[in-house]
Amino acid sequence: MRAIKIKNSWLEESDLRLDSPFHLSEGVVTKRLLDKFCPYTITDLKNEVSELFKGDIHKRVYVSPGNGSLEFYSASDLLKTSILNPKHVSKKYSPHLETLKLHPGWILISRSGTLGNILLTNKTHEGIIGTDDLVRLKPKENQILKGVLYAYLASKYGYGLLTQSGYGGVVKHIEPHHIENLPIPIFPNDLQKTIDDLISKSSNLREKAKGELISATNQVLNQTSLPEIDYSEFEHFGNHKADRRPTSFVRKRSEITSFTINAFNYSKKVERLENRVRQSIFLELQDCLDENKFFSSGSFKRFELESPNSIRLINQSDIFNLRKQGKMLAKIYVKSDKLVEYGEVLIAGVGTLGEGETFCRTIFANEELEGQLISGEFIRMKTNSKVPSGYLYAWLSSDYGFRFIRKTQSGTKLCRPIHELLKNIPVPIIEKEEMLKIDEQVKKAYTMLFEALNAENKAIELVEREIESWQKS
After folding, report:
1. Exposure check for the chain: N or C terminus, fewer CB within 10 A?
2. Measured over all CA atoms, what is the biggest interatomic distance in the chain, rounded to whole angstroms?
């Protein structure tokens, strides 16, 4: 139990709020720390932004991709390493879309549900539609540089300030006017320059990494002469349309195996896509892997422990995020052979069939994941000498690879791939030299993402270390 005595002046400063979680929050503690120890001038957030708004709440009419639609991203989509298939909203029937368009150089803060997650936009976000559940900040770099403002808000001190005003019962919310008076120290110019350079480096690296990954996937399709897949060429759970008819097909009894009777596994549409790949040189997925084939971290006893000697467990919902939090576990129950090795290709092995879900998506194990512990729900793979791991990742992360993996799913509420079907997925084989180029491109991109995270962490650490130094002096 936590308890604290409060002063009358604190009630006046908090608009007479009497709820104890507010006065015990880290944000309130940070305000008192700044008032007491900060050696610099303090400004308010509203003085450092030209605009602070959330976008208009509007009716969303979801449609299939096309000329009459715009990509729509939720807050969780925007915080992922690579944005997955977004929803599409109708230009005609969804008003106020202009107020929801994003542009480079903005700071976005999640304001509903999970509060205080933060993102600095870059050129890859230009013109896309972001949910109204994001507070948008347009920094004007008056006394505080953009990168410094971002690092401060992303620090543990900024997070406490952002989330202290959350209101609501089951689902918490914050509004732009709740954070406009958030106090911000005006750090010295040399410190600001160092922090801003690190954040700029991080943002640029993420932008370049996304471009490299898109290029790698495109190179696979170009080298194999495979056209892009149209939405009509596979079954999916999408939006209702007057002209969209349910899929039906006939299979002979001899075509039904003992593995499954799920119609999704026998899709004739996806079979045509597979045959398109099989027209050229290919290997089945099982032939691209080492002797372990598909394996997982398995199950193990979990004892949560916050300690420098703990090991972090990363689950499926967290692994695709730019900043992976995970849970800290005692090492005593974790064997070293369960830890991830660099170059593994991972498939998210449980989930639902929504187009924007992470289920059946792939991720490349880079320097950040090396030596980490991941959930047993991941399907893990190590390649053999026939196929480089970066190339296999580029193929499985393409639309073809994703649809082939999805075809193997089984289950109702929570689905999982059937391994016996998964091992037969065709993998196109091109010239070894070209595969190695794509492999290098993927590894370069994921190293960029690792370096971007390190640069951002260093900037945030500089902010936190500076604030902590005031209390020691």
Report:
1. N
2. 80
User: What percent of the chain shows pLDDT beyond 90?
Assistant: 55
Q: How far is CA 106 from CA 44, 92, 118, 121, 135, in A?
A: 18, 27, 10, 5, 10
Q: Which residues pair with 283 in a beta bridge?
A: 427
* 3 burial via Cβ count (<10 Å: 0-12, 13-18, 19+): exposed
Q: Which of 395, 262, 271, 399 is nearest to 381 (CA)?
A: 395
Q: How distant is the alpha carbon of residue 174 from its chain centre?
A: 22
Q: Read off the amino acid at residue 185.
A: P
pTM, whole model, 2 decimals?
A: 0.91
Q: How far apart are the first and last CA of the chain?
A: 30
Mean of the pLDDT values across residues 235-247?
Answer: 67
At 249, the pLDDT band (50, 70, 90 cuts) reads confident
Q: Residues, the chain, total? A: 473
Rounded to whole angstroms, what are the CA distances from 307 to 312, 313, 330, 388? 10, 13, 8, 37
Q: Which tokens belong to 257? A: 């195996």
Rounded distance, CA 355 to CA 318, Å?
A: 18
pLDDT of residue 15: 58
pLDDT tens digits, 406-456: 999 998 888 999 999 999 999 999 999 999 999 999 999 999 999 999 999
The pLDDT of residue 404: 96
With b for 16 or more beta-carbon neighbours within 10 A and e for fewer, the 154-181 pattern comes to: bbebbbbbbbbbbeeeeebebebebbee
The tens digit of pLDDT for each residue in 43-76 reads 999 999 999 998 777 777 777 777 778 888 888 8
